[in-house]
Amino acid sequence: MKRLLALPALLALFNLLLPLPQARADGFIVVDEAHWRPGPRPPGPVPPIWPPRPIPPAPRPYIFAPLEVTYHHVNVRIEGQVATTAVDQEFYNPNPSRLEGTYLFPVPKGAQIDKFTMDIGGKQVAAELLPADKARKIYEDIVRKAQDPALLEYADRDLFKVRIFPIEPNSKKRITLSYTQLLKSDAGLLNYVYPLNTEKFSAKPIKSVSIKVELETKQPLKAIYSPSHTVEIKRHGANRATVGFETSDAKPDTDFALYFAPEKEELGVNLVAHKVGGEDGYFLLLVSPGMDVKDDRIVPKDVAFVLDTSGSMAGKKLDQAKKALQFCVENLNDGDRFEIIRFSTEVEPLFDKLVDATKANREMAGEFIEGLKPIGGTAIDDALQKALALKSATDRPFVIIFLTDGRPTIGTTDEAQIVANVKKQNENRTRIFCFGIGTDVNTHLLDKITEDTRAVSQYVLPEEDLEVKVSNFFSKIKEPVLANPTLKFTGDVRVMKLYPAPLPDLFRGDQLVLVGRYSGKGDSAVILEGTVNGVARRFTYEVSFPGESGKHEFIPRLWATRRVGYLLDEIRLRGENAELRDEVTELARQYGIVTPYTAYLIVEDEARRNVPTAMQSLPQLQGDRAARQIAAENWSSFRREQAGDRAVAGARYGLALKSAAAPSSAAVDSAVEANRALGITALPPVTSAPAPDSRVRLAQYSQSGQFIAGKNFFQNGSQWVDAAAQKLQNAQKQRIQFNSAEYFAFAAKNPKALPWLALGQNVQFVLNETLYEVHE
Q1: Is 536 helix (H, G, I), strand (E, B) or coil?
Q2: In this structure, are residues 362 and 332 in contact, taking their beta carbons and an 8 Å threshold?
Q3: Rg of the Cα trace of the chain?
Q4: How far apart, in whole angstroms, are the C-alpha atoms of residue 646 and residue 666?
Q5: Cα distance between residue 266 and residue 245, in whole Å
Q6: Range list of β-strands (E), 361-476
Q7: Both ends of the chain: CA-CA distance in Å?
Q8: Can you give the pLDDT at residue 353?
Q9: pTM of the shown model
Q10: pLDDT, tens digit, for every residue of 507-545?
Q11: Average pLDDT, stretch 331-348?
Q12: Cα-flanking dihedrals φ and ψ of residue 645, to 5°?
């Protein structure tokens, strides 16, 4: 084992200095101990251990630099339940000396791997497969020698291992591999996982990361869902689809997961759940019509396009809005009807009624759109009333797409009165989708309108493309399949706190991703009701709610993310109370939904409860008076301001949480919006010296935690502290010394704790009502 000492990224000397991220990784290279050399302290926060542990002097010292991953590309072909994964990675050795080492590929948990092949530098090589018990010995030996527990995460997995020599100085080494696995089915859902986390293997952000999954099934594909990443889904008919994820200059830190459901039913309905510890459970319900929807099942719709042409829309905003409307009109279905209403000081409809989407009417609409000019004030109330009056007595879905860049200045200008007028005239359940253009919009007005009409608001920043936003939205709602859906559950199960609420309409090629809580257990029937072409339809599907299940660990955090989004919107639009504030605080702390907004709530809550410093979630912010003052002002503006940069950032922040599909992606997106409210568009990297700007420090404090394997950890001094530890201050405690025989015995006996142990040498976490403290 002398040759196995970690060089790449956080597996080498720098590992001893920097906090470790969640580690679920693909293949990586561990280089020989003889090539491990000291180097300068890397940039980053002041490490808990500095200076580093003594390292024997090198015969020929040089500046230490870990291996870099230059690109990481994955292509997956899934036919039925058989998945073939092809991996293409390139490593770069920035050191001035030739290296040699070992390539390790931890096998994904539970995967049945077959036909593993590997190519290094263009030559086929044979990899040795080690069972988990033998792989554990390799990992433990690395941990002992490197004084770094990062690899313990993999200690319960099989391992492919192959020797690599040489790794030439200042040169690249390309590695390709492929393997086949049989995917398992759970409640009709097939699940594919690729261990993408490469953050700790690259000294620099990876220039190119991509995953492409080609799906083909014998039965029609219904739900296609990734709980880990924001993916692009392109369907090619009923039985084929391509799922893509791409990013650049990134350090991926989350495994890629994909669920998909081949179903022969008209609607695909699949339910999975997570329930542990005797508490109420969490469930995820996927509902999708897929693409195999007959044309006579597509619901003809009525659409009113309402566009603000006031003077402030002059220039790029109106140009993009006109292009967006042209796209929408051209993409109406033949059975649809439409109207265009422009408004400024006055309201001007094109047809003064809903008309069929004929070629002649579309051409007339195109000419009308082209001739729109920016002038006058903003008569929002009059425009909405005119659009709502178009609703006919039929059961056809009626949608209003409302675009404005300002606040009401003509006619009724009171926010509450405008909302009341919409409610009064909207007895027919018309959905009003609002697009706020720029930052001088009344976010409270638009959000209350969309909330009351079961729709959603989007806010387009000056640097964003309105045409793209509107076009993408209209493409999604182009073909309704089920209007005004409702859900019921039968059996000895009670469901509660469902999100999204209320349910949106279902569209061809799209899907509903519903999360909620439940009590009870056992078989249940999901009853989905709605209308198709004015005819009531009822669909019934059998599902099962488990009494105990540790699977699908992502569901609680997904539910909490959406719940926090809805609660924060309630605070923003209607005011704060102790119940709302306390629930937001607890969920944010428990599930790592921490931004400058929720960080303020957490530090205030812990100060009020006199939480000991050693147990505090954000001790740095607690002790930074200037940053705390900024946090207080920021929270106040979130609750108070209705228009302007901060108000729009707050509204976009809430939407990022409420519409979350992948919790980790939502955490990043919501943090971007919360930072935008502070005037920060790009957060600078953390350095050893505190940032001079208190706003930047606030944002950095807010992003210092890590959510790992169902737990949220905060860094407190040299320790990583489980957020759940605050509730067990008087519980039984057990101290374990890092790298001791007791330490490795505990790791072997408690595989659930492996990801938490991998955080570092000083960790506190709760397991089975016991508070464990790992220390040096």
Answers
A1: strand
A2: yes
A3: 28
A4: 19
A5: 28
A6: 398-404, 431-437, 457-460
A7: 23
A8: 96
A9: 0.90
A10: 988 999 999 999 999 999 999 999 887 788 999 999 999
A11: 96
A12: -60, -45
